[in-house]
Specification:
Strand order of the largest sheet: 2-1-3-4-5
Number of domains: 3
Number of helices: 16
CATH topology of the largest domain: Rossmann fold
Radius of gyration: 27 Å
CATH superfamily of the largest domain: P-loop containing nucleotide triphosphate hydrolases
Largest sheet: 5 strands, parallel
Length: about 400
């Protein structure tokens, strides 16, 4: 059910509390003073921390302050046999989740643990939601051409299943939006959507990023870390630019998909994982297989469903819709009155060769919003779509 750290200088209290919690299927670790508690809490993850107040070397209030400074996000429950209202209020003000007086009451402990876990889960969910809203505010799959309509219809059919999906397409076509749409329309939509850009992570770190690592696994591994496969369990793991993944990482990803288990770097314990895998690439993976750069067995594991996102040049009739969408969004972001495109501006946008696809279109619309007058005309498009002019 979770990991709990008990920090108390009284061995009998630690053992009694440990027996209670282990009976409830928690994994429990002990620390006999504040210094040991601080070292354990900052080097490993705990779902909840219990701390006595009066202890040698470092008391509970000082431990609480240090944990706040170290940005340890685990809920901290203070316990004391010398409790007063003033002490309890001070602990709560300093960031403790709750204060429990000794002798400890079993029902009170279990209720407090449940409330702490519920609040922590809500905080984490809110963080993820805020990041998603901030990053993808106003974004959606815009378009009415047959090519993009087919993508939308395929998302509606595929999303409710747990089938793995491989999304192909040029850079900037919106492959990540398709991946997110698959997640948001699936039965996993209430669980995390975790993204890994395989091209942006050095080859020597990709395995740690995907599978996590144990403390001391390598020089900079100062604490245990969960990998993306664990974090995305029950949710969706989006492996972007999968064609750039190293051969070693490919082999381990294949094992994870085949067996549903992973091992953290530096660890020996098998950890069960169950994320839905959605992968994307701008490369021709069949050609990469022929050249020995990509495993054919991994390709077949990933490509249960194949989806190709068309380039912007292949769906030019969607450009007016996309341009108007970006214009509205960007004017709102910059806090300026909404500008408008003239008919010749929209025609000029449709006649442009979009090598950078939708990403390039958005950048140019933003450039024109900032630099042009209230009405954006065809001359503006021809000028600002090619900065070298």
């Amino acid at each position: 059910m979770g990991r709990i750290l008990i920090v108390d200088d009284e061995r009998s209290i630690r053992r009694s509390l440990k027996e209670i919690l282990e009976f409830e299927n928690f994994e429990v670790e002990e620390a006999e003073d504040g210094k040991e508690g601080l070292q354990k809490a900052t080097s490993s993850h705990f779902d909840i921390i219990f701390s006595d107040i009066k202890m040698p070397k470092m008391d509970g209030m000082e431990l609480l302050e240090q944990l706040q400074k170290e940005k340890v996000e685990s809920p901290i429950i203070m316990i004391s046999g010398h409790g007063t209202i003033e002490t309890a209020v001070e602990a709560i003000k300093k960031g403790a989740f709750d204060f429990i007086e000794k002798p400890l009451d079993l029902n009170r402990i279990l209720v407090t643990i449940r409330n702490a876990k519920d609040k922590h889960a809500l905080v984490e969910e809110t963080k993820v939601l805020k990041k998603t809203v901030q990053r993808f505010k106003g974004s959606s799959i815009i378009g009415e051409t047959p090519e993009i309509t087919q993508i939308k219809e395929m998302i509606a059919k595929v999303a409710p299943s747990d089938a793995r999906v491989l999304i192909t397409g040029e850079n900037g076509t919106g492959k990540e939006l398709v991946a997110r749409a698959l997640h948001e329309n699936s039965n996993r939509k209430g669980e995390p959507f975790i993204e890994v850009n395989c091209a942006a992570i050095p080859a020597e770190l990709i395995e740690s990023e995907l599978f996590g690592h144990e403390k001391g696994a390598f020089t900079s591994a100062v604490k245990q870390k969960k990998g993306k496969f664990e974090l995305a369990t029950n949710g969706t793991l989006f492996l972007d630019e999968i064609g750039d993944m190293s051969a070693s990482a490919q082999a381990k990803v294949l094992r994870a998909l085949q067996e549903g288990v992973i091992q953290r770097v530096g660890g020996e314990k098998n950890i069960k994982v169950n994320p839905r895998i959605v992968a994307a690439t701008n490369k021709n993976l069949r050609k990469e297989i022929e050249e020995g750069n990509f495993r054919e067995d991994l390709f077949h594991r990933l490509s249960v469903i194949l989806m190709h996102v068309p380039s912007l040049n292949d769906r030019k009739n969607d450009i007016p819709l996309l341009a108007e969408h970006f214009l509205t969004m960007i004017c709102a972001e910059h806090g300026i009155p909404r500008k408008k495109f003239s008919d010749d501006a929209l025609e000029a946008l449709q006649n442009t060769n979009w090598t950078g696809n939708i990403r390039e279109l958005r950048n140019i619309v933003e450039r024109m919003v900032i630099l042009c007058d209230k009405v954006i005309n065809g001359f503006d498009v021809n000028t600002f779509s090619n900065p070298r002019n």
